[in-house]
Amino acid sequence: MRKALVTGITGQDGSFLAELLLKNGYEVHGLIRKASTFNTDRIDHIYQDPHDPNARLFLHYGDLSNGEQLTNLVYNVRPDEVYHLGALSHVKVSFDIPEYTGAVTGLGTTRLLEAIQRSGISARFYQASSSEMFGSAPAPQNEETPFQPRSPYAIAKVYAYWMTRNYREAYGMFAVNGVLFNHESPRRGETFLSRKVTRAVARIKGELQSKLYLGNLEARRDYGYAPEYVEAMWRMLQLEAPADFVLGTGVSPTMREFTQEAFEYAGLDWKKYVEIDPRYFRPTEVDDLRADAAKAHRMLDWSPKVTYKELARIMVDADLEGIGLEPIGEGDEILKRKFGDWHRWESGVTAVLKSAGNGVD
Ligand code: NAP
Ligand code: F7E
Fold it and tell me: Which CATH number is correct for 189-222+252-284+307-354, 3.90.25.10, 3.40.50.1100, 3.40.50.1370, 3.40.50.2300?
């Protein structure tokens, strides 16, 4: 049985990836942080009691800031594949805590690469690189586009990108960068634009909220559906030789267009509810991210199916269901039509949506 180690398993992508790996027959080990409240909501539905002799999911406490513990973990688990998804992933927050962002999002990758190297194992390594690294480089961006990062987050990711390449070149490690453009889902954190909007749409419908405060709505983002992206991460580690890939849809709506789409789907006029609050503006913004993912189409046989308009429907329906309202219904139809049953959002996610706090912005 192949073994995978996943950092960031409690996050959006980590939870979808853990599901995929379990489905593909892996034994899955996840790194989780010790918090004073439960932080495993996104993976509670796949939790397995470690006393069960058939258990294939194991969680280990740790932190990306602690290199010695990462080395022990890698040495003891001896994974065949390491998916490094853990990071401070919020661009706006990275301006507030730039040093921490460098220490975790940047150096965390080095600690993990070094842990693999020192353990003497030949694990394949996936680095969660980001389209944010392209920053102000003109769209469309692909594997050859030079990076022009515009935030502490993006700069930390550029460092981690090059460390991954360096371990590949210096030590012959099978280490790859997936340079992923925005991918969203009902499991997206509540403070990212897409989820903040779809959650607000549901709460306005449910008369739990009357206003939504947003920042710059003119930026363009290439929005895809997260479960499709974790499938490509796995495919990257199954290749014969390591290579870096850009993943995205090639379509980048403005954040205003996405917002309008989500409100209109629920029969609401967004202009009545949305107000601009400059506190959500970033000191430096990234204006236009749009992927040229031709290499992934060709070498990974990967083409995303969900459009940003469909994504808005899937997410609004999930958020309506999350607060106990009847979904409008197109979201479920889209998922069934495109994927069959597997990609229906799980009961565990609905539980997360129900318990989400009221004061989140
Ligand atoms: P996410 O939902 O924010 O998840 C981040 C994960 O990292 C969580 O499990 C979090 O744990 C963990 N983490 C944060 N700090 C940590 C630390 N010091 N030690 C150990 N774990 C820590 O992010 P995501 O959207 O799933 O994204 C996954 C990865 O892909 C991230 O590296 C992100 O930067 C990158 N990425 C994301 C996108 C996107 O559009 N989603 C695009 C490109 C790249 P807690 O649950 O305890 O907070
Ligand atoms: O912002 C604008 C904001 O925070 C999207 C992360 O997964 O994708 C994500 O980073 C856009 C920006 O995502 C609000 O200024 C307006 O232009 O949802 P976001 P992001 O910055 O694109 C990349 C690829 C990653 O790698 C990251 O980890 O929306 N915006 N008003 C707002 N953004 C937020 N969060 N909140 C607002 O109120």
Answer: 3.90.25.10
Pocket of ligand 1 (CB under 6 A): 7-8, 10-14, 31, 33, 35, 39, 63-65, 85-89, 104, 128, 130, 180, 182-183, 189
Residue 352 pLDDT class (50, 70, 90 cuts): very low
Mean confidence (pLDDT) of the chain: 94
Q: Which residue is closest in CA terms to ligand 2's atom 28? A: 89
Residue 45: CA count within 13 A, CB half-sphere: 13
Using CA positions, which residue lies closest to atom 16 of ligand 2? Answer: 215
CB of 188 closer than 8 Å to CB of 226? yes
Check if 182 has its Cβ closer than 6 Å to any atom of ligand 2: yes
Looking at residue 340, what is its pLDDT?
A: 79
Task: Please name the residues in contact with 178: beta carbons below 8 A apart, sequence gap of 6 or more.
Answer: 126, 127, 128, 129, 229, 232, 233, 236, 244, 245, 247
The owner of tokens 């360096």 is 166
The pLDDT value recorded for residue 6 is 98
Q: What are the residue boundaries of the structural domains of the chain, listed by start?
A: 3-183+224-247, 189-222+252-284+307-354
Q: Is 93 in the pocket of ligand 2 (CB under 6 A)?
A: no
Per-residue pLDDT at 343: 55
Active site residue 130: yes
- Measured from the Cα of 64, ligand 1's closest atom is 19
Q: Which tens digits make up the pLDDT trace of 56-115?
A: 999 999 999 999 999 999 999 999 999 999 999 999 999 999 999 999 999 999 999 999
Is 210 among the residues known to form the active site?
A: no
Pick the CATH number of 3-183+224-247 from 2.60.120.280, 3.40.50.720, 3.40.50.20, 3.30.70.270: 3.40.50.720
SS3 32: strand
Q: Tokens for 146? A: 């030079």
pTM over 0.90: yes
132 is an active site residue: yes
